[in-house]
Amino acid sequence: MTIKDIENIFEKTSPYMYRILRTADILKWQEENSENEHIGVLDFSELEGFEGVLIAALEYNPQEPELPEGCMSISPYYYFSNRYYMKLSNDLRPAEDRGEIRILRNSPLKVLANISGLGYYGKNSIIHNGEFGSSMFLYGVGINVEENESIEWNGINNVFSDCGSCRRCIEACPTGALDESGLLNRGKCIRNYMLEGTQVPEEIGKKMGKRLLGCDVCRNVCPKNNRLSARERMPDYDREIFLIRNYLDNREKGLKRFINPLSEWIGRNYARTKRVLYQCEIIDGNDKDV
């Protein structure tokens, strides 16, 4: 599979940008910075046997539709990332099965995006660039150079962030999970608890509002996101799927008729029954506190 073949698949999905790095350059960068504990432990084993990696950013529209009464909300990122990942993986899987490429499932994509020059870290730990802001989905593919194919490799970017003195995300974070270093305090992050499905401290749960998945407060205040996307926005919420009482009132039986279509929106990993029920309990409690 050539780079042009991969481009054609991206074009059918969303506006995109990409960079290409040599595996040898990535491993050399890691070795040269191995004293940094965050870099030394990075796992690039998925690139073994491949000359390089193509790391892409695909744009999505961050505008969220109006939330129906009694429903829980999701960040548009999770809706679009599920759709993009499924489409790209299905389209690229035949080439992966032939051993021509490798879809990166466990590699540090944000790191690859940063060192490739595809984007910079914000102080909210999210990657952004001048074209898409932070409204983008990252996707990586291990590649080999096809015979008679010419590839223009990108060099290693060593600029971590371009935020300068801006502190908007730090000041806006409802739980104080951010600081000047650009490192996220996961113990204070609303979204992290949603993703991990672990016990939520009461003070964090109260600030989750009606969110099932995602926070977006820091993303919404970022000046890098001051443009309107021309992409189609996330569709209107399906009230039956996102109605909180449908989950709480049917916890003993019949949940599959809600969980299964919910997984079509956000993916099966995030639509796990226990996680959704727990989040619904938090949201229900927040409604009663209002």
From TrEMBL:
<feature type="domain" description="4Fe-4S ferredoxin-type">
    <location>
        <begin position="153"/>
        <end position="183"/>
    </location>
</feature>
<dbReference type="GO" id="GO:0052693">
    <property type="term" value="F:epoxyqueuosine reductase activity"/>
</dbReference>
<dbReference type="InterPro" id="IPR004453">
    <property type="entry name" value="QueG"/>
</dbReference>
<dbReference type="InterPro" id="IPR017900">
    <property type="entry name" value="4Fe4S_Fe_S_CS"/>
</dbReference>
<keyword id="KW-0411">Iron-sulfur</keyword>
<keyword id="KW-0408">Iron</keyword>
<dbReference type="GO" id="GO:0008616">
    <property type="term" value="P:tRNA queuosine(34) biosynthetic process"/>
</dbReference>
<keyword id="KW-0479">Metal-binding</keyword>
<keyword id="KW-0004">4Fe-4S</keyword>
<dbReference type="Pfam" id="PF13484">
    <property type="entry name" value="Fer4_16"/>
</dbReference>
<dbReference type="GO" id="GO:0051539">
    <property type="term" value="F:4 iron, 4 sulfur cluster binding"/>
</dbReference>
<dbReference type="InterPro" id="IPR017896">
    <property type="entry name" value="4Fe4S_Fe-S-bd"/>
</dbReference>
<protein>
    <submittedName>
        <fullName>Epoxyqueuosine reductase QueG (Queuosine biosynthesis)</fullName>
    </submittedName>
</protein>
<dbReference type="GO" id="GO:0046872">
    <property type="term" value="F:metal ion binding"/>
</dbReference>
